[in-house]
Specification:
Number of domains: 2
Order of helices and strands: EHEHHEHEHEEEHEHEHEHEEHHH
CATH superfamily of the largest domain: Isopropylmalate Dehydrogenase
Largest sheet: 10 strands, mixed
Strand order of the largest sheet: 2-1-3-12-11-4-5-10-8-9
Oligomer: single chain
CATH architecture of the largest domain: 3-Layer(aba) Sandwich
C-alpha cells in the first residue's frame, strides 16, 4: 500500500526518537512491499522559535493531508514559563482538536524481562496487560479559563455525546479482549462525573450488556492500579484523570520510554506518539529509548493503515529485542550495559520478521 506519514519531531529527544520511528517504518515498508512517503513539519518549541507559532498553518495542512501523524515530544525548560502567552503544549492541544482525535489509547503491557525495573514487586506485575482509554478533546483542558490578580478558574464540561463516543470506543476494545471495562470518575463530588456515570451505565446496559462493567472513583482507581493492576482489562476515563492515571500506569512497565499511544477520531487518520516527554537533559545524546515511539508506529500500522500483520510483527520485534538483552539506559539493570538509541533501533529492525 501507499501512505503519507507526517512526522512532527518537536523538541528535546523528539527528533531522536522520531528518526528511529521513521527508520523502522522504512524497514517495514521495504520488507512488506509498501510505499511510505514521509513529510516533516514543525510543532511545539521548535515551531515557536522558527515561526512564532506552536502549530503553524503549514503543519496543520501537512497533518490533514497525511494518512497518519507520528509525533516526538513538545516542550522544555526554554519555554516552560506557565505565564507565557505562547507555549509548546498549546500546539499539541490544538492539533488534537483540529484532527478531532478524541480517543487516546494507551496500552500497558509488561515485558517479563523488565519486571525488575518497575518500583513494584514482580509478583504484582504478573499478567498485567491493560489499555487505558482517555477522552482527549473535552474536559478541563479545553474549558473556558479565567484569571484575575487574586483568583483563577478552569471550566470542566462534558456532553452526553462526548461521553457516549469514548465509552463506545472503550467497550468495543474490551469486547475484543477479556470483556472487562472499568469506568473511572469522581461522581461523589463532580457534576461532570455524575453525567459520565449516568451515560456510561445506560449505554453499557443497552449496547454492551455482555461486557463486565466496573466503576471506580479516580482516587480508588489510582490505588488499585498499584495494588491489583493485573485485574484491569480496559479503563476509560475523562481527560485530566486519564492524563494522570496513564503516567502512573507507565511505572508498571518500569519506564515511560516503553509505552506508546494512539489518538483516534471517527476517521482513519490518527496521531501517534510516545507517552514520555521531551527529556531535554538527554536530547541529542543518542541515549533515549526509542521503543515507545516504535511501538506507537506499530499502533499506526494497525489503526490508521490497517496493516495488522505488520503491526504484530513490529510488536514482536520489540519484545524479541528486549528478550535478547537490548537495553537503553532507562531500562538497564545494574549488571547490564546500556546501548544507544541507534543500536536499539537496529536491534528491533534485526528482529523484524
Amino acid at each position: 500500500m501507499e501512505a503519507v506519514i507526517t512526522l512532527l519531531p518537536g523538541d528535546g529527544i523528539g527528533p531522536d526518537v522520531t528518526a528511529a520511528g521513521k527508520q523502522v517504518l522504512e524497514s517495514v515498508a521495504a520488507r512488506y512491499g509498501h510505499a511510505f512517503d514521509f513529510k516533516e513539519a514543525l510543532i511545539g518549541g521548535a515551531a515557536i522559535d522558527t515561526v512564532g507559532d506552536p502549530l503553524p498553518p503549514a503543519t496543520v495542512e501537512a497533518c490533514e493531508q497525511g494518512d497518519a501523524v507520528l509525533l516526538g515530544a513538545v516542550g522544555g525548560p526554554k519555554w516552560s514559563d506557565p505565564n507565557a502567552t505562547i507555549r509548546p503544549e498549546q500546539g499539541l492541544l490544538k492539533l488534537r482538536a483540529v484532527l478531532g482525535v478524541y480517543a487516546n489509547i494507551r496500552p500497558v503491557k509488561i515485558y517479563p524481562e523488565l519486571a525488575g525495573t518497575s518500583p513494584l514487586r514482580a509478583e504484582i506485575l504478573q499478567g498485567v496487560d491493560m489499555i487505558v482509554i482517555r477522552e482527549l478533546t473535552g474536559g478541563i483542558y479545553f474549558g473556558k479559563k479565567t484569571r484575575t490578580e487574586s483568583s483563577a478558574s478552569d471550566l470542566c464540561e462534558y456532553t452526553t455525546t462526548e461521553v457516549e463516543r469514548i465509552v463506545r470506543v472503550a467497550a468495543k476494545l474490551a469486547g475484543e479482549r477479556r470483556g472487562k471495562l472499568c469506568s473511572v470518575d469522581k461522581a461523589n463530588v463532580l457534576e461532570t462525573s455524575r453525567l459520565w456515570r449516568d451515560v456510561t451505565d445506560r449505554l453499557m446496559a443497552s449496547e454492551f450488556p455482555d461486557i463486565e462493567l466496573e466503576t471506580l472513583l479516580v482516587d480508588a482507581a489510582a490505588m488499585h492500579l498499584l495494588s491489583r493492576p493485573s485485574e484491569f482489562d480496559v479503563i476509560v476515563t475523562e481527560n485530566m484523570f486519564g492524563d494522570i492515571l496513564t503516567d502512573e500506569a507507565s511505572m508498571l512497565a518500569g519506564s515511560l520510554g516503553m509505552l506508546p499511544s494512539a489518538s483516534l477520531g471517527d476517521g482513519s487518520a490518527g496521531l501517534y506518539e510516545p507517552i514520555h516527554g521531551s527529556a531535554p537533559d538527554i536530547a541529542g545524546m543518542g541515549i533515549a529509548n526509542p521503543c515507545a515511539t516504535i511501538a506507537s508506529a506499530a499502533l499506526m500500522l494497525r489503526h490508521s493503515l490497517e496493516l495488522e500483520a505488520e503491526a504484530d510483527a513490529l510488536e514482536r520485534a520489540i519484545a524479541d529485542a528486549i528478550a535478547g538483552g537490548a537495553r537503553t539506559a532507562d531500562i538497564v539493570a545494574d549488571d547490564e550495559t546500556p546501548i544507544s538509541t541507534d543500536d536499539m533501533t537496529a536491534e528491533v529492525i534485526r528482529c523484524l520478521n
